[in-house]
Amino acid sequence: MTTTAAPASGPLLLTQRRIWIIFSALIAGMLLSSLDQTIVSTAMPTIVGELGGVEHQTWITTAYLLATTIVMPIYGKFGDVLGRRNLFLFAIALFTAASVGCAFATDFWGFVVFRAIQGLGGGGLMILSQAIIADIVPANQRGKYLGPLGGIFGLSAVAGPLLGGFFVDHMTWQWAFYVNIPIGIIAFLIAFFTLTLPSKKAQKRIDIGGVVFLSIATTCLIFFTDFGGRADHGWSDPLTLAFGAGMLLAALIFVMIERRVEDPIIPLGLFRNPIFVNSTAIGFTLGMGMFAALAFVPTFLQMSTGTSAAVSGLLMLPMMVGMMGTSIYSGLAITRTGTYKKYPIMGAALVIAAMLWMTTLSADTPVWVICAQLFVFGAGLGYIMQVVVLVVQNSVPVDQIGTATSSNNYFREVGASLGVAIFGAMFTSRLAENLKETFAGAGLDASAAGEATATLQPSVLKTLPEPLQEGIVTAYADSLAPVFWYLIPFLVIALVLALFLKQIPLSDVAGMVARGEAVGGPEADRLEAERLAGLKSGTTGSDASAGCAAPDAPDGPDGPDTQDAGTQDAGTRAPDNPYRDTGR
Fold first, then answer.
1. Which residues contact 500 (CB under 8 A, 6 or more apart)?
2. E strand or H helix at 14, and its extent?
3. 291/172 Cα distance (integer angstroms)
4. Do the Cβ atoms of 290 and 388 come closer than 8 Å?
5. Stated pTM of the model
6. At what angle do helices 367-394 and 342-358 cross, to 10 degrees?
């Protein structure tokens, strides 16, 4: 893939100051997305109870994940082809607008639609942030930037549950989305004025056919698993089978298109790269177990322990503290040593240990035990999530950074969607049966149990007679804890895959520098000093003018043709890496 020829203004100067300025825009976007997730997960039981959709609550998570999953490869490929700045701004705007729609939703399925639109923006924020970091920071230095990102997730872990709980307990759940409006506006303004990245023009035809059939296959996959896991349909239902057939047909057509198209949205050559395949498989299996567990823990905490939304949200804090701590530690350690192999192994082992421990959850489990379980779970995730992305980006050609990053995340989110749909269906099915027994024991008919499954809110639980209240709490505990056993095999597979992950040298060149779109390191500092000296003296030399226009222009210049990257000095090239020559 090539980009347009270099303009006269010259490449962007990646000085340390400019890197941190660009990074501030990424932090603003990540804060918007991560804060929303922690607020909504805390408020979800109340939201579905008020809108009347407890039996369909998996769709709140599934719709967001489905939309996020579909657009990930699109953002990744389009970012490689067209540049990432305008796409990042679009993602922020879309996410913020969808938050308004969620706040004003008056029925459950309308809320789900706007939640899906949020996912269309959230997918861009996630992928583009990761790809932009790879553009401006070499792989061997990228670990030090995991600290501020970990700080953002830590801030969200504290502020999100507090805000979500406060909104639910003292205001209305709609405020969980109103709060995104000012945050989104601020994030957009920060990104607009600080995200100085080059724009490009596509030199090859965009793979529209691949986009369409990948989206169809992904949608059919999610509906297939959702309808198959529901008691009113099942795996032999004609509608379920139709979605399964549609998934297979769309996937087959997608592969045929990708084999023939000039610039595929997911290059099949990536799957000849053993590091990419291994890392992606780790993400897929981990996604199935991780997201399925996380999707229902807040509900378990509120219903099974009888805590408020605010308290249940704060009980998730140990998980985020563990994740933040190990993410920061592993990032700094990788920067210092240049090795990464052991961290996914350690992470998978910790997640398995935590999941085994969580199978013992019951209505009588002390709160401190739940907090300890979540801390271990989060610590394991922190060792894996960022490291796997770094490994993938380091193993592919520099003009495929966005594509590889999005493809890796895509398959992780496919795993997450499958996990939430399949194991969520198991949870709700068990819950319905357990509530029927509970209500029958209290002398109530089955229809009362069905109504409770659909509309029961945590605040209503305390108003019920004590025997019925205890029975409902036990039903929630007995429905969720056994599901954790079904997640463990997928986590064991992730551990085995991590054991076979290859260790290769980390690149010492940022993606934009390797593509000839920017100048980095000491050379960038020298040119920036010349530019500032020229401005101070009122003159502009040829050397200074070559680097002064790009840093000050929000859109930045188009980068030079990547075919010229091979003429760079040896000091700007990455270490020898056989996987970087992956074909398309």
1. 278
2. strand 12-14
3. 26
4. no
5. 0.77
6. 150
